[in-house]
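dumping the sequnces here before i forget
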Amino acid sequence: MLSSFRKQDKKDEESSTSGNPYKNLEKASVLQEARTFNETPVNTRKCIQILTKIIYMINQPEMGEQLGQTEATETFFAMTKLFQSKDMMLRRMIYLSIKEMSTVANDVIIVTSSLTRDMTGKEDSHRGPAIRALCKITDASMMQSVERYMKQAIVDKLASVASAALTSSVHLMRHGPEVVKRWVNEVQEAVNNDNIMVQYHALGLLYQIRRSDKHAIRKLILKFSKAGLRSPFAYCFLIRTAANLINEEGEGTDSPMYDFIDSCLRHKNEMVIYEAASTIVSLKCVTPKELSSAVNVLQLFISSPKPVLRYAAVRTLNKVAIQYPAAVTACNVDLETLITDSNRSIATLAITTLLKTGNEAGVDRLMKQISSFLSEISDQFKTVVVDAIKSLCQKFPRKHTVLMTFLANMLREEGGYEYKKAIVNTIISIVEENPEAKEAGLAHLCEFIEDCEHTSLATRILHLLGREGPRTTTPAKYIRYIYNRVILENAPVRAAAVSALAKFGAASEELLPNILVLLQRTTLDQDDEVRDRATFYYQLLKHNDKPLNSAYILNSMNVSISSLERLLHRYTMESTTKPFDVRSVPVEAVPVEQPKANISIVSGVSPGGSESKKAREDTFSEQLSVIPEFAHLGPIFKSSLPVDLSESEVEYVVRCIKHVFSHYIVFQFDINNTLNDQLLEKVTVQMDGSAEGFEVVHYTPCQVIKCNDTGSTYTLVKLPDDSSAVTGALACTMKYTVKDCDPATGEPDDEEGYADEFVLEDVEVSVSDHVQKVLKPNWSASWEEIGAENELEDTYTLPIPTLEECVKKIISYMGMQPCERSDKVPDGKASHALYLAGVYRGGHDVLVRAKMALGGTSSDPGAQAITMQLTIRSTDESAVQVIASAVE
Amino acid sequence: MGLLDSFFDWLGFGKREVNVLVVGLDNSGKSSLLNYLRPRETQTDFIAPTVGFNLEHFVCKGLSFTAFDMSGQSRYRTLWGNYYRTTNGIIFVVDSSDKTRILVAREELQQLLSHPDISSRNIPIVFFANKMDIRDALSDVGVSSALGLDGVTNKSWHICSSNALKGEGVADGIEWLSSAIKSSLDQARR
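..and the predicted 3d for all of it:
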C-alpha cells in the first residue's frame, strides 16, 4: 500500500502539470483490482476508489481503454456483492456505477430487487438515487414490475424522492410511454406538491405525457396559469410551452396563450418576469406595442443592483437590437451607464447593443470605449464584439477604416482559434462585400499570416489572396508574403501558398517570370503534395497558354467529389483500356446559399445544404441503376427538386422528380395512396409530349401500392432530336388497377380489380433542368477560354421595373450560377452586368453575360423597363440556342 | 467445539462473516424463508417476486450470514452462476407441494452441482422441503428421492421439511448449515 502511494507521488512529480491521479489508468490493472469486490468483509475505502476508477474509465472514451461487454458484466456482478455493505458513501458510488455500466454490461436487471428495496427503505438519502439507478436499468419489458413502486414514489411526501421519480419517468417515457401514461393521476397529484422543484418536475412530466395532443397542452396551460402554482420554475416552463404553441400554430397576440405570457410580466418573481419578457421579444408574431412592454421590464432590470439581472436584461436587449433597433433606443440612456459596469461581460454587451442601435457618429466613441477594456474580457465576449463589428460594417460601409483598424489590432493580440476565426471571417466578408476596403483588409490578413499558428486559417487566407490578390492594383506586393509561407510553414500551408502563387502567375504577364522562378525552387520541397503542386503549376505556366491557365489554375474542376471517387473506383475494377472520361462525372451543384435573413448574434452560417444534396443524388443514381432499362443511360446529369402534380388533399398525392441524362429524361413519380380501403396495382404514369417532340420509350410500373403507402413508378422519355428545342410541357395521366380491401387488415377483398385513371398536372421541362449551376471563381478567364466560336448575342427589352428583380428572374430561368458576386446590384446604379456560369447537359460549359440598363423603350421612354444585352458562349452550339430560348 | 469458539472469541475474531446463496425455483419460498429469519419488527407480510437478487443478514451460532436471495424465475436462473465462486454455503429451497415442477428443480440442482465453481469445492448444501403444511405435500424423504440426493456424494448435505411462513423447521436447517460451514472453514484452514 505504502509503496503504491510512493509510486503515485513519483508519477505526480514527473507530470507536475496535471494533478489528475486517474490520468494513467490501465484497464487491466483496474479490472484486477475489481476482484476486491468479492472479498468478505468488504473493504469500503478501497472499493470506493476502484469504483471511481471504473466510472472515470467509462467516461474517458479518448483514453482508448474501454471496457468490453464480458469484462463489464463480470465487474458488474462482482460489484453487486457490495450491496452487503451498509456504508453510505459506498452505496452512493454503487448507484452511480450501476447507471454508468447499465449500457455496457449484460443482465444489469440483477439489481432490480435490491434497488426497489432501497427506494422504499428507511434510509432517505438512498431512496432518490436508487430510483434513478432503477429507471436507468429498466427496459420496456421490465416496466410492469417497477410500476407499483414508481407510482408510490411519485406521490411520496419526501421531495427528493418525488423529484427523482418524476425526472426518471421523463426518461422512461422513451422506452415505455404507454406505462408512464398510466401514472397520470399520481403526476397530477404531484403538481400540487408544496415543494417548488417537485411541482416543476411534475409539470414537465405531465407535458411529456400529453405532448402529442396540442389541445390538451392548451388546456393544461390555461388550467395551471389560473391555479396559482408556487414554483417559479413551473411558471417559466409554462411560458416556454405557451410560446412554442404560439409559434407552431402561428397565432397572434390575441390568443389566450399570449395573454398568459403577458400577465407573467407582472408576476412577483424576477425569474418569471424575465422569462416572460425574453419570450415575448423572440415571438414571431410580436408587434412594436407588445415589444415595448417587454423592453420596459428589461429596462428596469438594467438598473437592478443584481449583476445577474443586469446581465440577463442586456443580453436579451442585445438580441432585440438586431431585429428591432428602434425598440431598444428607449433604453440607450440606461445602457450608457452600463458601459462602465465593473462586470466586463455586461459592459461588452451594453456597448455592442449601443453599436447596433446608435448612429454613425457614435461609432468612433464606442469603439474607443471597447478597446479600453478589450484585454480584460474573455474570448467568447470578444467574439460578440467581432460580430457586432461585422454587422456595423454592413450598416455603415463608410466606417470601414475605423473598424478594419480595430479588427487588425484585435488580430494582433492573444486569442484562441474560435476568436481568431471570427475575426478572419469578418475581415474576409468585409473584403468581399466592400471593394473599397479590399486592399486594406488583404494587407491586414497578410500581416496576420506572417505569424499565424492556425493552419486552417492560414490556408483560407492564402486561398483568398490567390483569388483577390491578382486583381488589385499592385499584385506584386503580396508575392513576398505568400512566398514566405513556402519557406517557413508546415506542409498544408506550403501547398496552399504554392496554389496561390500559381494564380498570380496565371493572371499577370508581368509577374509570370518571377513566379516561375519561385515555383521552380519549390519543386525541391520535401513534402510530396507541395512538390507535386509546384511541378504541375510550373509546367502549366511555362506554356503561357490562356485557356490552359483558366481551366486548370484559375477555375478548378467542378465535379462532385463523392461521385468522382465512386466512378474512379468502378473504373479501376473494370478491365478496360479506354481512358477515364471526366465528363461522365456528375457536376457538383453549387449549394444553395441560405438567405441571410438577419445577422444574428451567433453567426453560424453553415453551408448545410451541400452534404444532403450530394447524398441525395447518390441515392437516386443507386435507385435508378437497379432498373435494367435505365442501365445504358449513363450517369445522372441532374435531379430536380420534387414537384407536386396533385392537390395535397386528394386521394393520391403524386410528386415528380426529373432525372436528366445526356439524351433522356427519367421521370420518377412518387405516389402516396392516402386511401385506407383501396390498393393500387400496376401503376404507371402515361405521358404525352409528342407535340414538342418528346418520345416516351419505356414505362416501369410500380407493382403494388398498399393503403397509406408510397410507391415509385418511372417513365423514360427520349429528348427531341432537334437539340435546340428541348423544353415543353408533358401531359400526365396515372393508370392503375384498383382493388378494394379491408381497412383493418389491408388485404384485398376480391381477386380482380378494375382499371382506372387519374389525371395529373402537366410536367414542365424547362431550360434550368438542362443546366447545372457551377461556380467559376475567375469568370473572365473562363470567358476567354471558351472564346467566341459559338457566341450568340442579342438585345432584349424586358418589362421589369428594377435591376434586382431582373437579375433574380434571369438566374431562375436559366438555372445558372452567378459569379463574381454579380447577383448583388449596388444601390442607386442604373446599369449592371450579370455573369453566369453553368454546365449544360452533356458536360458543356456555358457562360452568360447579361448587361442590363434601366430605361424605357424607344417608343415609350417613360415605361419601366430594362434593356438587356445578352451574350452567351459555350463549347456546344445547341446549348447556346437553348439558353437563349430561356429569355423568350 | 465450544472450546474452539471461545478460543476464537479470545483471539478477537468475533463473528466470522460468511456468504450463502439461496436458490430454488420461483415461488418456492426463498424470500419468505429469509423474511422469517429477520428480526421480528422488520418482517413484512407482503413478499413480491424477487427480480435479480436481494441481500439479507442474519446471525446463527457465532457466524454472521450474508444471504444472496436469488430470483427463481426461469429467465434469471442463469445469473445464479455469477455468485457461486464467493459463496460458503447453499440453501436450496423446494416447493414440496409442487410435484410436477420438482423435476425442474432436480434439473437446476444438477446444473448447479456440475458448475465448475461448485463441483471442485466442498460446499455444504441444506435443502428445505418447504410448504410442508400443505396437505398432500411430499415428505422430506420423498423430496430427497425426487431430487436424486442419494447420488450427491462429494458434498455434505442435509434435508429438512419446513414451513417458511410459520418458521417450522427453518432454525433446524440453518443450524446444521452453520456447523457445516464452520467445519468446512476449519478444514480449509488446516
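Residues 1-16, 592-613 of chain A have pLDDT under 50 and may be disordered.
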